[in-house]
Amino acid sequence: MTQKENFKHLVKSIESKEVELNLWGSLTIEKTLEIIKFLQLILIGLKENILKNGFQNQLEEINFFKIVKPHILSKLIFYNKVYRIETCCPSDYTSQNKYYLKKIEELNTEYKKYYSQNEFYKYYKANRIDKDIEYFTLGKITPLIGLNSFVFEIDVLFSTYYDYKASRIIAHNMLQNYLQEKVNSSNTKNTRLLQFSETLVWSESHNALIELIYALYVSGSINHGKLEIRKIAVLFQQLFGITLSDIHHAFHRMKTRARSKTSYLDRLKEELEQYMDKEY
């Protein structure tokens, strides 16, 4: 297999993995972590291949550091940023919207500071090729041109430094689109939930709702058991427009009830069975 064929194979394997994980349908923290590990292994294997076999010619080298590696590394940077963003994301939709908007502001600030007036950024975005040898072939790094000190930490056998900068540019655009979609989705959810919740009233006690929440959580009835109980609680609070006090303490108090520990769930079962009997 030639290097060109190998590169195409790697790109296809990444696309297949993204499809397998349905990353564009539902980008969960677990899926993000899995694709990060997958991409890390891809890059490790790619580095070993390059160090062993090298490039057939300068054109292949430029293509690798300008197109192939940034395509892969940008995804790793993007998914890593998404992982860090989502692990700190609040549970309720209103706070989520503010959170994502703040992240977009941070990206815009980063763009103004690092990209908007950067010569390489202009070169890369303009699809120029006149300096490709300088930017995308090995051994051209020199401290005399005032590069960021990060350059001294890179692997000079597997990076031209500018392949990393190209990857950052691609990842920045991907993250911008991701966050904007999150804001749009959050706005839609907030509007629908507000319209729907105005017609819904929880007419039982708060403890009854907490019983139901815990039952749904421990039974794994929502998201195959992968949704945290606090998020389930937030969902019901938003749905019915109520505030539940500390559900964990309320749950522990239920365990010391004199009669049934699950009085509300018992009543649900009893009334459902009575209703079923009436149907026959």
From TrEMBL:
Q: Name one Pfam family in it.
A: RteC
Listed name of the protein: Tetracycline regulation of excision, RteC
Q: Which organism encodes this protein?
A: Myroides marinus
